[in-house]
Amino acid sequence: MGKVTLSLIKADVGSVAGHTRPHPKMMEVAKEVLKDGVKAGTINDFMVARCGDDISLIMTHEKGENNEQVHKLAWDAFSAAAEVAKKFGLYGAGQDLLSDAFSGNIRGLGPGAAEMTFEERPSEPIIALLADKTEPSAFNLPLARIYADPFTTTGLVIDSRMHEGFIFEVVDVKENKRILLKTPEELHDLLAFIGDITRYAIKRIYSKQENIGIAAVVSTEKLSLLAGKYVGKDDPVALIRLQSGLPAAGEVTQPFAFPALVSGWMRGSHWGPWLPSAMDYSNTTFYDGPPRIVALGFQVKDGKLIGIEEEPKVGEHKPVDFFADPAWDKVRHMAMEQAIYIRRHGPFMPAILPPEELEYTTLPQVRSRLADRWEDYEAAQLHSLKEEYKGEHIVHE
Ligand SMILES: [Mg+2]
Predict the structure, then answer these.
(1) Nearest to residue 81, comparing CAs of 55, 42, 99?
(2) CB 321, CB 296: distance < 8 Å
(3) CA distance 125 to 374
(4) Which ranges constitute the DSSP H helices of 137-286?
(5) Among the listed residues 160, 328, 307, the one whose alpha carbon sits nearest the alpha carbon of residue 257
(6) What is the pLDDT of residues 336-392, one digit of tens each?
(7) Within a 10 A sphere around the Cβ of 173, how many other Cβ atoms?
(8) CA-CA distance, 291 to 52, in Å (whole number)?
(9) pTM, whole model, 2 decimals?
(10) How far does the centroid of ligand 1 lie from the alpha carbon of residue 285, in Å?
(11) Beta-sheet strands, E only, within the chain
């Protein structure tokens, strides 16, 4: 077995009753397109999943990352799903397909992609993290915890293959640059950057062990679309390799036991807590949220996928749905208490994002319409004092 590429490509191409979930028929037609892709030899195997209103295509092949044929296949699958959405009159039908036609690569065309290529180990366990109603830098905190915090990942202390730490690739979305930082030695430098989720996003993480290589990758397509302008409000996905010199599944899901606040939620304009959800319960029906995180586990073997299906069959896989476990009920309860609390601030900060981070705003229009009614403060004060001396505005008690 040579190198295998795992491609996770996602898009929102329409949803029932607002931004809740795609219609099952949309997932079905996407699956049919990918089945044809397997027959044509474009991909080896696949799984169609979702989180909230986003459809995720998880595919294996040997064509490497950014492959035109693979990206075209994903584009065709999303186009077919968008056709169903249009036919049913669903909300936001085709919204993430920004171009009329596919051209070379999915980057810049709307969908997001997380892709990794690796030499398959004898056992290759993977978790796909699918998020809805947030943005790629929302993964900064959990990824820092997983790969650089020994209080989350005991493996950093007790596994000799992880003891040396990891290498983080961080993207500066404003300058359109990237930097590689090593942990633990550059941990504080790393945190100085990635704590600012308006500007920095983790793109990849590598093991320092050369024979392991890539550890994790996040979809950040829209971040690099326009240098200098933040256009990254795209529901992110990530692929994470597990075990044997990499964090265990439990170390990867552990940071989500803390419902950290992330930006997105309703209209992409609020702060809200992560709500860990089973895939089938990831419909964003509480104020169009709260932001969801779904964790799906599976194996890659001989370039194909293995889940918990009775008989592994191409395109018919059932992943382990980590957050379906009732163990996460307590976290969901905590997250919902936070969600209800912060919602009560309505349109006030810190419930809403600062003006420059709002996905859209009417503030400039309101400002210009009322521009003439703003008086000079000092002059207005003086004016009202004079009026009072004339006795005209004195209130008798
Ligand atoms: Mg979405």
Answers:
(1) 55
(2) yes
(3) 62
(4) 140-148, 155-158, 187-194, 249-253
(5) 328
(6) 999 999 999 999 999 999 888 877 778 888 989 999 999 999 888 887 777 666 655
(7) 24
(8) 9
(9) 0.94
(10) 12
(11) 3-11, 45-51, 54-61, 112-119, 125-132, 166-172, 177-183, 200-207, 214-218, 237-241, 261-264, 270-273, 275-276, 292-301, 304-306, 320-321
Find the length of the chain: 397
| Cα of 304 from ligand 1 centre, angstroms | 27
Tell me the mean pLDDT in the region 303-329: 97
Residue at 176: amino acid letter = N
- Rounded to whole angstroms, the Cα distance separating 175 from 159 reads 37
Q: Locate tokens 């900060």: which residue? A: 349
Q: What spacing in Å lies between the alpha carbon of 161 and ligand 1's midpoint?
A: 37
Q: Tell me which residues are annotated as active site.
A: 12, 230, 233
The structure tokens 């293995």 sit at 306
Which residues fall inside 5 Å of ion ligand 1, going by CB? Answer: 12, 53-54, 132, 235
